TrEMBL record:
Native species: Spirosoma soli
PROSITE patterns: ALDOKETO_REDUCTASE_2, ALDOKETO_REDUCTASE_3
UniProt keyword annotations, A-Z: NADP, Oxidoreductase
The UniProt record lists the keyword Lyase: no
Protein name per its UniProtKB record: Aldo/keto reductase
CDD domains per the UniProt record, alphabetical: AKR_AKR1-5-like
Pfam families, A to Z: Aldo_ket_red
Domain NADP-dependent oxidoreductase as annotated: residue spans: 23-258
Length: 272
């Protein structure tokens, strides 16, 4: 399976489709899930210190014996660890748990108002030191990015935020593109909340795909890096089996109208 790759604003290549491993009640299953995903052709694993499973990701990488440079690993600094010195320490702990010397992408997990400026300075240092191949942010909308650009010496390579037809904000995508930041979407499957939406079911049936596969494909067709999460083998395989069909322009336009602000995470617009 040839998963498409995108080139970030600093020339680093990143797979467009990967596995998210936010699974707080299933962390014991994360290693197996990562192994299954890698077996299915996945080469992007998205973890975070807050998920408590960086070690399981490392164990899976070791078990599969894939060369380190073949798997793109993202991790993130959690809210409690933000601030300049604390971020640098948190980053070292993440590398230790992941058993790697360099992470492919390091993100600020949420824009914590009182610390995010210093946290970005720490990420710029990590990047300058060659410890992260790319740095970026997560859950940032325009106001947070405007503030970051007042001080940033490095443009974030990626902005990861919740992305599905139900929280589709075209202006956020447009802003990222204007600033040469690659959008990455998490929770494309809305944690199953919309799997039986009759509008979604009707479109999925046209393509002989599940509603989950349709949601992953919709995100990819918006040119957004997409990281569906699952710990079930069949579901993981199905989430990667989305490269053999294309949603028509008409159906994309219809799905773009499903916005109702359904989210599995807080709305970044509520963060000052």
């Amino acid at each position: 399976m040839n998963i498409p790759v995108t080139t970030l604003n600093n020339g680093v290549e990143m797979p467009m489709l990967g596995l998210g491993v936010y699974a707080p009640s299933h962390n014991s299953e994360v290693q197996q899930a990562v192994e299954w995903a890698l077996e299915a052709g996945c080469r992007l694993i998205d973890t975070a210190s807050a998920y408590g499973n960086e070690r399981q990701v490392a164990d899976a990488l070791q078990a599969t014996n894939l060369p380190r440079n073949e798997v793109f690993i993202t991790t993130k600094v959690w809210n409690d660890d933000q601030g300049y010195d604390r971020t640098l320490r948190a980053f070292e702990r993440s590398l230790e748990r992941l058993r790697i010397d360099v992470v492919d992408l390091y993100l600020i997990h949420w824009p914590v108002q009182e610390h995010r400026r210093d946290t970005w300075k720490a990420l710029e240092k990590i990047y300058a030191d060659g410890r992260a191949r790319a740095i970026g942010v997560s859950n940032y909308y325009q106001a947070h990015l405007d503030e970051l650009f007042e001080q940033a010496n490095v443009t974030p390579a990626v902005n990861q935020f919740e992305f599905s037809p139900y929280c589709y904000l075209p202006d956020v995508l447009d802003y990222c593109r204007q600033k040469n930041i690659k959008p990455e979407g998490y929770a494309p499957l809305v944690r199953g909340e919309k799997q039986n939406d009759p509008r979604l079911v009707a479109i999925a049936e046209k393509y002989g795909k599940s509603t989950y596969q349709l949601l992953v494909r919709w995100s990819l067709q918006h040119d957004v890096i997409t990281i569906p999460k699952s710990v079930k083998k069949e579901r993981i395989q199905a989430n990667f089996d989305v490269l053999d069909f294309e949603i028509s322009e008409e159906d994309m336009a219809t799905m773009n109208t499903f916005y109702d602000n359904t989210r599995v995470a807080p709305d970044p617009r509520d963060i000052p």
